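$ run holo --ligand "protoporphyrin IX containing FE" --emit tokens
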Amino acid sequence: MSLQTWSRRFLRQLRGANPFQGDWTPTRVPLFRFGRPSLPFPHLWNYREPLRILDTFFWATERETGSGKHNRYLAVPGQPDVLVTREPAVIRAVLSATGDKPGQFDRDTAPTAGIARATGEDSLLYANGPLWRRQKQLAAPAFSRSNLFQPEKFHEFEQTFRKTVAKRLELLRARQLASGQRVTRIELEPEITVVMLEMLVNNFFGGSVSYEELRDRFVPALVRCIDHMVRDTIAHSLRAPLDIITGRKRSLNRAQAGFESLTDIALAGRTNGLGLWTEFKSDATNDALRSNIRVFLAGALEATTSFASWALSHLSRAPHVQDRVYEEVKTIDVYDPENLEQAVTLNRVLEETLRLTPALYFLPRRTTVDTWIETADGRKLFIPERTHVVLDVWHANRCEDFWGRALTGYSAEAFAPERWDTFAQQGRSAKDILHFGFGYGPRVCPGKYLGLLEVGLVVGAFVKIFRCTAVHAATRARAGVSTKPADGTLVDLELR
Ligand code: HEM
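-- output --
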């Protein structure tokens, strides 16, 4: 940014002038105000509660009637402006205008700086512009629907995935039987994490790591590295000395070494032509692929664990829905695309889970130049160069104006897979009603179909064997790289 542009912005910020123009404009969030949930930016004392930081932007907006109700901005003199939106039409417009063409939005790298330091800056997740395009062409086709859902390929994966899940559930079942108790109290999230990593490392990347080693070595290493990525994003310069003083440095080094070994294992499948690698046609060196493999391992583990943990967490509080899913899956042995499509309730549970509790709760973007966006209904908004744009999917999906009783028949805050029946009756499909659970537009999630297959399989196979009941009537969300149920999906488990 030139000195002239910076000075203009600084003076405008001092005057308190609104930087946005157009058919509608966001309203300003004060930097300080008594009684709010948090300050409207991350710092050392609130970074572990990002959802509260986002709450701050929409705090006390119920009575607003204009576009400021769903579109807010923060302007701190000398810093880039921050626009936070929870309006689906605006989220869609920004996601559609993200990419590598001149003037398009970048993915904002500020909230993922810690991820980039741990995984590499040239990954598909972190890169922008021509480098992102190259990475996309290199890595994304292997995950595409047309590739994974080819009948032969699909059956191969489905079979190995299903065997892995069945083996783990069998162990859980045997534990339950051996205990002699009708009911076992258990946190499901740790179990889900190992199964998700096992599918990814062994079934997908062709590794052959034992369950015990995944559980005792690699899952703790990855969880430690992911936790570090979140801290490192906020407190990079403070972190290094603090880690040495508190002795965290040694345990972090061990965890990072574990992460690297796992990346080596995933890449070794390529040399031996195993798993997904048989579909991967490229002469890129392993070194050129490393950062993407790290992102796939850590990112996919986070996202699929979040998704499956939330789905089972919601089902554990909705016994009638759980029974309906059971009726659908009790005769399903093979999760091929046809069977999955027929499991209507299971599909709606997955859709509703991603709506109410999206794994990725905000999508960060940044303008590269002064930019006009246009929503599908023709409204235009001017966003200045280098504005951080936070697409607040969490609050968009919980907003009564977009998902509430008037439109769907159910409160926006409720887990109600039935709302998707209302949409079906209205002739609207999930494609028209976007919850952005996998993003949207050019930077949509390349792992969508792999993730859906894995999570559908885990949830379906679980409900077929067990009935689970939540221990607590409700749970908060814990948010880091992704959201998870704060109670670890603590349930009482019974065999069906
Ligand atoms: C099933 C659970 C998953 C969920 C809910 C999920 C969600 C998302 C979302 C919302 C985005 C868009 C981020 C943005 O627009 O800023 C995204 C991007 C991405 N996801 Fe996923 N994901 C899942 C599984 C996976 C898997 C299994 C992989 C790979 C093995 C993966 C790899 C990626 C990558 C590399 C990107 C960045 C794509 C780009 O920028 O072009 N995800 N994911």
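-- notes --
The longest strand covers residues 490-495.
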